[in-house]
Task: inverse folding
C-alpha cells in the first residue's frame, strides 16, 4: 500500500469520529500546535482520533522522506475531496519543479513570495531545487513569504516547510534566512488569526536566552519529550532540538507524554 493510500485510509478512519472532511483539518491544527507551541486547537483530539493522528503523522513523514519537496499534504487533501466546503487543487508536482528550475539561483539574498500558497507546493519545490543546485548556503539566502486565505493551509505549509528543512539537513541544522507565512485575504489585505514569523525562530542567528537554555537542559536531563518542552516553555521545537542535537525522528508524535514533576519543573509547567 502506498503512502498516499495509507494516509487516505487513516483520514477516513478519523472522519468516523469527526464527521466527513473534518478530521484532517483537526489533525493539521493539532500537529502545527505541537510543532510550534502556537495557536492551540479549539478542541483537543480525543483518544480515538489521537491514535489515528499518531499513525498518520508517521506515514506523512515517511512520504516526505521518500520524495523531498513534494506537497504530500496537498495530495492527501486533494485525494480526500477538498477541504471543508471548498474544492482544493494543488499545483502539480511537475509544474512546481519546472517553475522552481526556471527561477534560477542568486548569489545574494533571494526573496520568494508565494501568494495563495495553499499547502506550500511552489515553496517546497523552490527550497528543494535551491538545495539541489546550491546546497545549504543557497537555502540560507532565501527570504520566503507565503500567503493564503485559509489558516489551516498556512499551518499545513508551515509543517511541510519546516520538516523539509529538517529532512534536507540530514541531521544538521538547515535554515532559510527568513520565513513568514500569513493567513490573509490577498485582495482586501485583511489579516487572519494565523501568522507565523520564523525570521527569528528558524534563523541560525536566533538563540534561546540563558534562562530558557537552563530550563531546557534541566528538562532534557529528566528525559522529557522535546515537544513537551517546546509546548510548556513556548519556544520553537527546532531550537530545543538544536540544544540536544537530536534528529527529529520518532518524536514527531507521542501518544503518552511523561508528566513534568519535581520542583525544578514547576516553573516550566507554569510558563
Result:
Amino acid at each position: 500500500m502506498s503512502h498516499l493510500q495509507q494516509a487516505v485510509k487513516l483520514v477516513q478512519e478519523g472522519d468516523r469520529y469527526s464527521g466527513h472532511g473534518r478530521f484532517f483539518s483537526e489533525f493539521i491544527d493539532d500537529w502545527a500546535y505541537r510543532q510550534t507551541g502556537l495557536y492551540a486547537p479549539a478542541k483537543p483530539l480525543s483518544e480515538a482520533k489521537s491514535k489515528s493522528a499518531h499513525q498518520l503523522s508517521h506515514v506523512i513523514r515517511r512520504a516526505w522522506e521518500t520524495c523531498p519537496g513534494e506537497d504530500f499534504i496537498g495530495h492527501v487533501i486533494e485525494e480526500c475531496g477538498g477541504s471543508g466546503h471548498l474544492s482544493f487543487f494543488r499545483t502539480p508536482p511537475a509544474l512546481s519543479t519546472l517553475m522552481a528550475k526556471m527561477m534560477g539561483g542568486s548569489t545574494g539574498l533571494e526573496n520568494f513570495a508565494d501568494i495563495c500558497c495553499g499547502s506550500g507546493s511552489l515553496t517546497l519545490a523552490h527550497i528543494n531545487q535551491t538545495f539541489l543546485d546550491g546546497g545549504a548556503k543557497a537555502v540560507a539566502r532565501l527570504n520566503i513569504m507565503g500567503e493564503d486565505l485559509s489558516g489551516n493551509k498556512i499551518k499545513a505549509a508551515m509543517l511541510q516547510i519546516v520538516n523539509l528543512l529538517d529532512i534536507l539537513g540530514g541531521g544538521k541544522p538547515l535554515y532559510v534566512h527568513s520565513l513568514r507565512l500569513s493567513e490573509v485575504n490577498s485582495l482586501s489585505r485583511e489579516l487572519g488569526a494565523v501568522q507565523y514569523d520564523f525570521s527569528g525562530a528558524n534563523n541560525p542567528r536566533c538563540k534561546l536566552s540563558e534562562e530558557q537554555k537552563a530550563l531546557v537542559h534541566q528538562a532534557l536531563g529528566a528525559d522529557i519529550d522535546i515537544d513537551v518542552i517546546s509546548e510548556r516553555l513556548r519556544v520553537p521545537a527546532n531550537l530545543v532540538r538544536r540544544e540536544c542535537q537530536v534528529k527529529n525522528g520518532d518524536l514527531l508524535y507521542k501518544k503518552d507524554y511523561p508528566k513534568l514533576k519535581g520542583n525544578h519543573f514547576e516553573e516550566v509547567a507554569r510558563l
